[in-house]
Amino acid sequence: MRQRRTGWSAVGLLILVAIFVVIGLLRGGQSGTNGTPTTGQTGTTSDWYQLYFTDPHYPDDPANHHGGIDTHLVDLMNKATKTIDVADYDFDLADVSTAMAQAEARGVQVRMVTDTDTYTSTNKDVKAAFATLKKANIPVVDDKREAIMHNKFTVVDGEWVSTGSWNYTDGDTYHLNNNMIVIHSTDLAANYTNEFEKMFVQKDFGKAKNKSLPHPDLNIDGTVIQNCFAPEMDCTSEIVQTLSKATKSIDFMAFSFTDDSIGNTMIARSKNGVAVSGVFETTGSQTQYSEYGPLKTAGLPVYTDGNPWTMHHKVIIIDDHIVIFGSFNFSQSANESNDENLLIVDNANLAQAFTAEFQRVLTAAKNKPANQPVINDGGG
Fold it and tell me: What's the pLDDT at 41?
């Protein structure tokens, strides 16, 4: 009787639920430039990591600049009881600088390394962020050289590491496609602290840094991870060696991709039956230095991105279970001049989350308007 009064049978209810699920999946699968998924969308989580992606929208409304992936870094800083070490290339977020100042006020040792061009910037938001640190007596070391301190990592209490392509800026948070991962591992934290102190304590940058690394190869809950820091280590060779083992697929998202050895390896693997596809940041992709032309000429399905601002990822996904990511652009400057960090992680769940982001970025690249503007809003 109840089913007749409501007009719904059990089968009808199941059909209705299925329709809502399909609609939800279709909406969730859209890129931020074409759809409206939540800001600061979570890629995936586990017992030892949390992965986040930015969700840029165009046209932009500054009133919506809240609740992004910066909130997860702030949460991490707010949990600090002993130490916070920050190495960040570009910096203007008030909530991050405030979290650092508040940590210092409650007795946490807070230190920072940055690039001189950022530290001496006349931009009002950058100046305000550093003024907050200065007022809290947080020491900041800048690299004082032409090449850039390009890292974007934070180490908390010697056991948590945040890293990825994301700079701590409003533009990187709300305009650029970026990723950030938070990893719980004392061994990985030891690696990043070691790298931080080369710059902060020893004041060594670039190739002046020694090649010491406490744990170049790690195993976290069964996941094998390789960790590399440039330019004292040859991270490009690590990438090429990993690519050379690909048997099924290589998908990539690249802000700057100019390294011939990486491009040539992708082409070689494609000739051996590996499916290679990728998305390049539009700016710079048409120059003679970009690998976009050679990969396109080789017949590979590569595209320029659909974000009017900047597609800022530096990600390669291999055979659905290996992910290469970090601050490291696929360029000679990254390998030989800039201060960079790179992770090579063998984890199918993590790869699946990055693949979902790749598909969103790829969909936006394939469906961008013919007259879409190109807006320069930072990057690096």
Answer: 59
Is 312 an annotated catalytic residue? yes
Domains and CATH numbers, the chain: 31-366 (3.30.870.10)
pLDDT for the residue 269 = 98
Give me the catalytic one of 57, 319, 320, 321: 319
pLDDT mean for each 10 residues of the chain (380 residues)? 34 40 36 40 85 94 95 98 98 98 98 98 98 98 98 98 98 97 98 98 98 95 98 98 98 98 98 98 96 98 97 98 98 98 98 98 94 80
Give strand pairing partners of 228.
342
Active site residue 319: yes
Q: What is the per-residue pLDDT for 40?
A: 57
Nearest-angstrom CA–CA distance, 15 and 9: 10
With a CB cutoff of 8 Å and minimum separation 6, the contacts of 292 are 257, 280, 285, 286, 302, 304
Q: Which residue out of 314, 339, 346, 368 is catalytically annotated?
A: 314
Q: What is the pLDDT of residue 378?
A: 72
Single out the catalytic residue among 312, 313, 339, 346.
312
**Would you state the pLDDT for residue 4?**
30
